[in-house]
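Contributing new records

If you add data, match the layout below exactly. Sequence lines come first and carry their own label; structure lines follow with theirs. Keep one chain per record. Anything else will be rejected by the validation script.
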Amino acid sequence: MDQETLTQGERTKTEITQVAYRLFLEQGYHGTSMRQIAQKSDIALGGIYNHFESKEQIFTDVIVAHHPYFEVIPALQAAQGETVEEFVRDAAGRLVSNMDDRLDFLKLMFIELVEFNGQHIPQIFDIFFPEVLEFARRFTSDRSELREIPAPILVRAFIGMFFSYFMTEILIGQYMPSEMSENTMDYFIDIYLHGVMVN
């Protein structure tokens, strides 16, 4: 929504969410107080409760607003390829270019997993799952190249392949020897498509 079309209340709520987002990244969820969010948002502490029932509701809004869904789904929808392999390589390349600068999301997900035991993940999943199913439909439109594996499992494995690449790049990428870092995504895709066994 355009900032100019927002009501004053909507602008205040957006500002609170943005301030909380920055504080959660810096301090974690439990390390951030409602008082800090109010002070940084330049509103009275009681004013926050006109927009949010609790700090957890703010966190839920933050994690939904900053989910990479908004970059990932358009990237997947734009993927092209005449063959399954071309399509998968193009989709993976688009994901990598869109997620390279999203360390913030990784931090938010660690907060979600460590401090909330993943309790908000179903809500996030409900938002993007229909779009992922559409990607699965495109992925499997020509079954002649694919084994008899359910489309949702193929997509789940694709997302798992991508996140294993992304996580290892973030966590140990700078420490890896060249033989572990050259053409890495190409190898991940090869393993995804063909496995590791010689046929």
